[in-house]
Amino acid sequence: MTFLLLVVAAAFVAFSNGANDNFKGVATIYGSATASYRTSITWATITTFAGSIASIFLAQALLKKFSGKGLVPDAFTGSEFFLLAVALGAGVTVILATRLGFPISTTHAILGSLIGSGAVAAGLGGVNLGALGKGFVTPLLLSPVLAVVVGAILYGVFHALRYSLRIPKQWCVCVGTEERVVAMPAGQSAFAMGTLPMPTLTLAEGETVASCQERYAGTFAGMDAQRIVDASHFLSAGIVSFARGLNDTPKIAALMLLVKWLTPVSDIVVVALTIAIGGCSARRVAETMSHKITSMNPGQGFTSNLTTGILVILASTLGLPVSMTHVSVGSLFGIGLLTGQANVKTVTGIVLSWVITLPCAAAIAGLAYFVISRLH
Question: In Å, how far from its chain's centre is CA 155?
Fold first, then answer.
């Protein structure tokens, strides 16, 4: 019975992860109007699932690291009650953040839950602070800073490359009619009486995605420059979602390693499926990631995705527990700083939610372990 509850709790973490994280990989193609919300979330689901399955072969080191071994005594990492408390702490924390629209880190939530459950189970002295700092905290702190720097550098390189290739930008001009609604006296023509003017032709221009679209003009290698950028941008979003599946799936699957009637491969398949289902509830986080951190055009979105994909895939294959949320937000913010369009207030709120995530998850997991251990 306990093992069944553990599987359900781990699936809950995976569902929460999908709801909070699935859209992060495709936020730029939605935010830059390269693709609709439905197309974006479908692409994210397909490519995240592919990354989850690939983690079976490429991310075994993360599977071992997030079992808790080395962080707390082995006696507890081998306990289904300990892992059940960790799963409950992480799942509740992530789903709460999702409902509030905050793109938090599932990695933070699982780590906080490991610490909180471990502290209650073995005492504060039972948590290996050395392993915590070197194996978890350092990569988590450095990854968003590195993402800001790499994102800004790549944007500068691509910006200079565009100028050297003489590919200019265009701004669309929206032309239409302006309609005015007035009361119409009964039995008479409002147009004839002069109370309702004929629709007039209007001209509107703007510099935001909401009012008009920024596009790339000209050709490159005989192909339309805008189509090349859009295709590259769409592909890069898939790469980021693939990287997210590769990075997050083994962390959650590690919670089910004790379940005897499941194998590590079936653990990952269960997590992959429930992440995909959870991704259907990603609308609030989608708005935050796509429209509130910085405005962007397709070229800037492509640069952010390239930065995120490179860093997360590299970290996943090396077994480094970075957060895709940190890297994705960091790359967007780095580009926004260069373009002068970064929303510092929104990013400050997101960073604050990251700070709160770990102690919140630790408290919930610690309470869960206390209750479960007393009921057992």
Answer: 20
For residues 282 and 18, what is the distance between their CA atoms, to the nearest angstrom?
A: 7
Q: What is the dihedral of CA 37, 297, 211, 325, to 10 degrees?
A: 50
Pairing of strands 169-171, 223-224: unpaired
Cα of 359 vs its chain's centroid, Å: 21
Angle between helices 106-122 and 80-100 (to 10 degrees): 140
Q: How confident is the model at residue 184 (pLDDT cuts 50, 70, 90)?
A: very low
Assigned token pair, 192? 């004839």
> What is the β-pairing status of strands 223-224 and 219-220?
antiparallel
List, in order, residues 6 or more apart from 314 with CB less than 8 Å away: none
Question: What are the residues facing 219 on neighbouring strands?
Answer: 224
| pTM score | 0.74
Q: Report CA Rg, the chain.
A: 24
CA-closest candidate to residue 238, choices 56, 39, 55: 39
Backbone angles phi, psi at 209, to 5 degrees: -60, -30
The per-residue pLDDT for 316 is: 81
For residue 18, is pLDDT > 80?
A: yes
Q: What sections of 101-224 are H helices per DSSP?
A: 106-122, 129-132, 138-164, 190-193
